[in-house]
Each structure stands twice: as structure tokens, then as C-alpha cells.
Amino acid sequence: MIAALKAGSLALSAFFFSAASAAADEALWKRVAQGGVAVMVRHAQTVPGVGDPPGFRIGDCSTQRNLSEQGRAQARRLGVAFQARGIAPARVLSSQWCRCIDTATEAFGRQTPEPALNSFFDDRGSEVAQSAATRKLIAGVKRGEVLVLVTHQVNITAQGGQGVGMGDLIVLSRDGKPLGRLPAP
Question: Residue 38's closest CA among 167, 140, 153?
Fold first, then answer.
């Protein structure tokens, strides 16, 4: 009997936590819809692996770790999430890595390559310059505008101070302050 009550209590707690989390997510989506923000998106789900294979080359997708079919579907759901809320990004900038370009293209139908968003996972020496360039992009967001930046885990951690899963989003104000995190749709 006690075990059943505890299980029921845990289920009820999970329900309320889930409802509160969903409400917080929708409040953050409403903030995005107001504009004046940058939304950093970690590329969608990839085939298994970490980093890229030895000898990878930008511009040659056959040498990179790419999106899985689940990742392509995840990216399309991202685009639907924006459309369902009436959010039309003014600009969609992407790392030059194929998994980021493909995420942006699947989600928004367009992207502009931006080297500042490239991964520095294997080259920490470029982190300072790239992060400064990314902060400058974020600071340039105009009132009412939504800037989408499709990039990598290391870049998002450098800007938002927290890690995210594949396909997750961090919303930043123009001054670079994190406003919140949204799970991959």
C-alpha cells in the first residue's frame, strides 16, 4: 500500500513538473516571438560519434559526421515549431560543417555560412576570436528581429555557459545574457 502511494506521488510530481516545464517553455517561445534575441541551435541528431573523422574537410560532407535520418526529422520539427508560433527568423547563420548547414536548411529552408560558428572542438586556439565574433553578431540583433545561429556544443557552451543536447536551443538577449533553454522539438 505504501509503495503504491509513493509510486502515485512520484507520478503526480512528474506530471506537475512536466506541466510547469511546458509552461516555462511556452513562455520562452513567446519571448522569442517578441524578437530582439538570438537563438543558438545545436545541430540536430547525428550518426553516432564524437567530433569528426580524421582528415575531415569543410565542404566535403563525405568526410564529416552528418545528420542521421532522425536528425533530419528533428530539424524539420524545429522549423515547424518556429512556424507554429509565427516566428520568422530575420537571418539564419550556420557553421560551415555539413551537419549545421543541413539542420538550418531542413528547419528554415535557408542559411548563410558563418565561420565564427564553426566548431573549435579540435582547435581551442580559435575559441577566443570566434566567441568574440559570435558576441558581435548577437549584439547586432535589432529590436523585433530573431537571429538563428546553428552551431556546435562548444560554441553554445562558450556563449550560454551551459551544455545542450543535439537539436536543443539557447535563447540569448542582445547583450548575450542567456534567457533560457528550449529542448529539441
Answer: 140
Query: What pLDDT digit, counting tens, does each position of 96-154 carry?
Result: 999 999 999 999 999 999 999 999 987 877 899 999 999 999 999 999 999 999 999 99
Contact assessment for residue 93 and residue 111, using Cβ atoms and an 8 Å cutoff: yes
Q: Amino acid identity of 97? A: W
DSSP assignment letter at 113: E
What is the set of domains in the chain, with CATH numbers? 25-182 (3.40.50.1240)
Q: How do 178-182 and 169-173 pair as beta strands?
A: antiparallel
| Number of C-beta neighbours around residue 40 at 10 A | 26
Residue 167: closest CA among 149, 183, 154, 144: 183
